[in-house]
Amino acid sequence: MADPVLHPETNHHHHHHTQPLKEIAIDYTPEACSHCPNSNSIALTFDHRGGARWRTTTRFLYGTFSALIQCPKGNTSGLNFNIYLSSLEGDKSQDEIDFEFLGKDKTIVQTNFYTRGTGNREQIHDLGFDCSDGFHEYMIKWGRDSIEWVIDGKVVRREEKKEGDENGEIGFPEKPMFLYASIWDASYIDNGNWTGKYDASDAPYVCLYKDIHVPIATVCDS
């Protein structure tokens, strides 16, 4: 193959070559996260121990990220379960691109993105199904100039980079990012209005991820 640097059009497509996720890091409560590399599947559990968060072991700069997700069954009020990209979880100046499920309503998903710590770009999308009812594919296509959020092959949101927006456009995610996923109790946010109040009646709550794919050519040394 020709040097992709000399042929930006092939280089662009290169961002979208993906490979199965082989290894993960678990940020907290490892006993609530089980990973089977052979079947490329991960289960996150929320119960009396709290939840857990997994991430890729490397950052990526642009590319296509996807997973089949079956969200937890039962009354998930209060919980947030998700898949997202972030330059560093907990950093106040992070870049981030999100799919977030709000436990009070499993027929919607929220998308958002942050640049240098500023978000406030939330949108709510009707799924047309219950996210706990079987597996559905969630994909983030992150390029230099556009972001697409794709569910079961359908683009539900597209954002394009704006050049020199005089309204103080705060830019576009450009920091290398990890792929993350977690399940946590978000009851305390906005007095419970965002995800609802936690109801433990159906614990343990298990979020299943499988067929997780990450870009093959855009790995950065973290």
TrEMBL record:
Location of the active site: 96, 100
GO biological process per UniProt: carbohydrate metabolic process
Keyword Hydrolase: yes
Record GO terms (molecular function): hydrolase activity, hydrolyzing O-glycosyl compounds
Keywords assigned by UniProt, alphabetized: Glycosidase, Hydrolase
UniProt xrefs under Gene3D superfamilies: 2.60.120.200
Occurrences of domain GH16 (ranges): 1-214
InterPro entries from the UniProt entry: Beta-glucanase-like (IPR000757), Beta-glucanase/XTH (IPR044791), Beta_glucanase (IPR008264), ConA-like_dom_sf (IPR013320)
Keyword set includes Hydrolase: yes
Name of this chain's protein: GH16 domain-containing protein
Organism of derivation: Acacia crassicarpa
